[in-house]
Q: What sequence folds into this?
């Protein structure tokens, strides 16, 4: 549950955005080809989750889908 609490925090959201950007760069610049494109598309998911303040795994652990109220 500490991971879910972290992911709901501001730092957790920023981490998801940075990791999503890293996946996109890795996919397009390093891997390349169709596999790289797929990796880049997958990178959009953590960016969207961070920007929209949702944690897709939280409900599986009994936590709310949206992050902590501000």
A:
């Amino acid at each position: 549950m500490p991971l879910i609490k972290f992911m709901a925090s501001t730092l957790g959201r920023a981490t998801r955005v940075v990791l999503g950007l890293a996946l996109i760069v890795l996919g397009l610049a390093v891997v390349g080809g169709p596999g790289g494109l797929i990796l880049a598309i997958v990178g959009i998911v953590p960016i969207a989750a961070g920007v929209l303040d949702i944690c897709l795994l939280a409900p599986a652990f009994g936590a709310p889908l949206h992050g902590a109220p501000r």
In short: Helices lie at 2-8, 10-31, 33-52. Residues 2-61 form one domain. The chain has one domain: 2-61. The first helix runs from residue 2 to 8.
